[in-house]
Amino acid sequence: MLDHPRDLTALLDVVCALLPESPAYQPWRDERTAAVINAAHHDSVRFRVQELAAGLGVSPYYLSRWFLKHTGFPVAAYVNLVRVHAARYLLEHSNEKLDTIAAAVGFHDASHLSREFVELIGCRPGEHRAGRAERV
Question: How open is the CA angle 132-84-47, to the nearest 5 degrees?
């Protein structure tokens, strides 16, 4: 088993090994795709496709097209998805203000977080937090 996963791709490998029928195609096993996934999950606040691409020896355009082709997600959309779910976790497990949460996960401000949150989750962050109180 995996005691302390160093990256998300290692965790995905463990999960797939435990599934009765693992998916045949596992995009995170590709070096470039794994690099984007791990970088986005490791530090979504400072994630920059330019820096990651330079480290991999490819252009940002090439890396972005590669990721889209192999995952179906544009890099920016994937990073925003990671940020929104990190914000969702903070909304559920802290009483921090929305501006503080937005900055902590890498959004410019609370309104930017709110727009992305509504698009991906279907409700405003405050409504999500209020729903947490009702569920408890």
Answer: 150
- Residue intervals of the chain classified under CATH 1.10.10.60 are 78-135
Contacts of 34 (CB under 8 A, 6+ apart): 7, 9, 28
Q: Could you tell me which residues come within 8 angstroms of residue 65 by beta carbon, excluding any fewer than 6 positions away? A: none
Contacting residues for 115 by C-beta, under 8 A, at least 6 apart: none
Q: Output the CA–CA distances (angstroms, integers) from residue 67 to 56, 63, 82, 102, in the order listed.
A: 13, 6, 15, 25
**Across the 136 residues of the chain, what is the mean pLDDT of every consecutive 10-residue run?**
54 62 61 83 86 90 91 88 92 94 94 95 92 56
> Model's pTM, two decimal places?
0.75
CATH placement of domain 78-135:
1.10.10.60
